[in-house]
Amino acid sequence: MADLALVPETASAAAARTDLLFLVLLAFSAAITLLVAVLITLFAIRYRAGTQRDRGPLPGPLRREVELGWTLATLFLAVIIFVWAVVQDLGYLRPPAEALEIDVLAKQWMWRVRHPAGPREINRLHLPRGRDVVLRMNSSDVIHSFYLPAFRVKQDVVPGRTTSLWFRPEKTGRFRLFCAEYCGTDHSRMTGEVVVMEPEDYARWLDARPAGDGLAARGEALFTGLGCAGCHLSDSGRRAPVLAGLAGRPVLLADGSRVIADRRYLMDAILRPRQEVAAGYAPVMPGYDGILSEGELAALIAYLQRLDGPEAVQAGDGE
Ligand code: CUA
């Protein structure tokens, strides 16, 4: 279907079925619109002012047949489309039993993802191709909406309730994720991507990100406990650089120099942040020199290095 370019990129079989329904509806509507337009034009010419045409009603029996005919034809079409759409929608409602379950937490203004095997991601969701996936979604603040155009799925994410969404990626690649419910200042920046990989690659990706135990998990606990998330995660990089996906990437500093966010940089930035201010941010972060033990520092860095995120989000990217 995507080849027709009548519809957006398609990445699942369900998406192709939805497109078929849409295109059939479009064809029906176009045909009926055309028919009505042609009849209006013909009648306007045939019965224009001044002509001596017969303007009386059709003979009784014929009139009933014509009326009955178009009423039944319309009803028949409407019922077909209704049943078709209901069957299609019910399919989206019931996730298959064997689906891979992944937790998604929406938060102003980001998507936090937790895989059953442990790894976490922000604004990015890695998936294996050819396997049903069901997302169990919650919001920690307001209503958001998880929207994947390539899969033709969209579901509200509501605080205080778990909503689900399922689909089966059938194509490898990167597909865009949007928030489709206005949720505050940075709603338009609450985007991300779904990365569909071959199952082997997905397994390798999982292996490269061991479960949340050990050093990185301790780092995460520290990150939360010290309140780092308050500026570095919750604000989409307006007060401080968002750290997801930062490790190993270049950072532009306030003095115009560029450094790679390697282990050494991360360490300096935590211990002596005022010398390592990323361009565009006020030097407000307290230094942790003498506060963190060596082990704590190592745990924090292990956590930061594992914190995956889209390339677009990195230090120096804020306004
Ligand atoms: Cu979240 Cu809009």
Helix content: 25-40%
DSSP strand tally? 12
Order of helices and strands: HHEEEEEEEEEEHHHEEHH
Amino- and carboxy-terminal Cα gap = 40 Å
| Secondary-structure-derived class | alpha+beta
Shape field: elongated
Largest sheet: 5 strands, mixed
The percentage of residues in β strands lies in 15-25%
Given as residue ranges, the uncertain stretches (5+ residues, pLDDT < 50) are 311-319
Please tell me the overall pLDDT: 83
> What ligands can be seen in this structure?
dinuclear copper ion
Radius of gyration: 28 Å
Count of DSSP helices?
7
The largest beta-sheet arranges its strands as: 3-2-1-5-8
Summarize the structure.
The protein is α+β, with helices and mostly antiparallel strands. Helix content is 36%, strand content 19%.
Task: Write up what this structure looks like.
The chain has 319 residues and is of the alpha+beta class. 36% of the residues lie in helices and 19% in strands. The protein is built from seven helices and twelve strands. It has a five-stranded mixed beta sheet, with no helix packed on it. A five-stranded mixed beta sheet has the order 4-10-9-6-7. It has a two-stranded antiparallel ribbon with strand order 11-12. Strand 6 and strand 7 form a beta hairpin. Residues 311-319 have low confidence and may be disordered. Dinuclear copper ion binds at residues 109, 144, 179, 181-183, 187, 190.
